[in-house]
Structure to design on (280 residues):
């Protein structure tokens, strides 16, 4: 790949998705864009870049961005996080929202839907307690292709074997040939929407819990700071933000601080300071 080609694609992807690629990712670009070259009959990456430089069709731009987006996910990903979510975070939020009987959750960069469906299954375990509640689970992703898969709610044998206990599989899925389809009840609990995290997230509304796990690692510090600041505006003062277990806000100027609850759990700094003052 010519240096100019890499530089153009790097800047193109950063501007449209926030994805930060170093020179060591040349192989990744070549591998993931190879299908687009074949589909559109471009002989080389340089030919693709020429098409992208001059008023490219929106569909082609979207294909390139979506091809480079990592969509790795699985059911109940990171058992420690979901154990903490079920044992502490959800009970706390349910108790705090008892008067209004409303609970709102956002899963950012949800890929093919395993994360929001996992949360829906956890909440279904409390269906008697939550009868009559307004439960909102919003799941967003940049890629319309993966969102269509998520909305379908049909997964391969390999996908349901990754993290999903057999009990939940048998309770919430129906075998369809070689695949498994999630139940209409669980599917109806999740509202899938296309959202670019670089854009305006305000229209999504406010949330009690936000999951944005293993997303920040692909962004440069300035983009991370901007996204966390905007998420803070959407998150209720006593809400929680879940990042990936290895993700941190250290070195970033954000309204969030880590907690000792569980790796990856963050709270509004003002709320943590207030809790500390009350306990002192």
């Amino acid at each position: 790949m010519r240096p100019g080609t890499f530089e153009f694609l790097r800047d193109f992807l950063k501007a449209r998705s926030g994805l930060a690629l170093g020179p060591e990712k040349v192989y990744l670009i070549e591998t993931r864009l190879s299908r687009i070259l074949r589909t559109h009959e471009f002989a080389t990456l340089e030919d693709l870049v020429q098409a992208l430089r001059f008023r490219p069709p929106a569909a082609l731009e979207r294909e390139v961005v979506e091809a480079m987006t990592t969509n790795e996910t699985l059911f109940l990903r990171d058992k420690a996080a979901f154990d903490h979510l079920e044992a502490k975070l959800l009970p706390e939020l349910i108790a705090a929202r008892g008067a209004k009987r409303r609970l709102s959750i956002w899963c950012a960069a949800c890929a093919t839907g395993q994360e929001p469906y996992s949360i829906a299954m956890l909440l279904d375990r409390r269906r008697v307690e939550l009868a009559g509640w307004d439960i909102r689970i919003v799941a967003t992703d940049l890629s319309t292709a993966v969102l269509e898969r998520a909305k379908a709610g049909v997964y391969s044998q390999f996908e349901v074997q990754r993290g999903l206990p057999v009990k939940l599989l048998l309770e919430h899925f129906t075998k369809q040939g070689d695949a498994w389809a999630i139940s209409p009840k669980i599917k109806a609990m999740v509202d899938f929407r296309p959202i670019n995290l670089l854009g305006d997230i305000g229209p999504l509304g406010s949330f009690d819990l936000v999951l944005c796990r293993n997303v920040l690692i692909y962004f440069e510090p300035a983009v991370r700071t901007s996204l966390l600041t905007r998420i803070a505006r959407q998150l209720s003062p006593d809400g929680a933000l879940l990042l990936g277990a290895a993700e941190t806000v250290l070195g970033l100027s954000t309204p969030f601080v880590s907690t000792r609850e569980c790796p990856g759990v963050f709270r509004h700094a003002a709320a943590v300071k207030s809790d500390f003052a009350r306990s002192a």
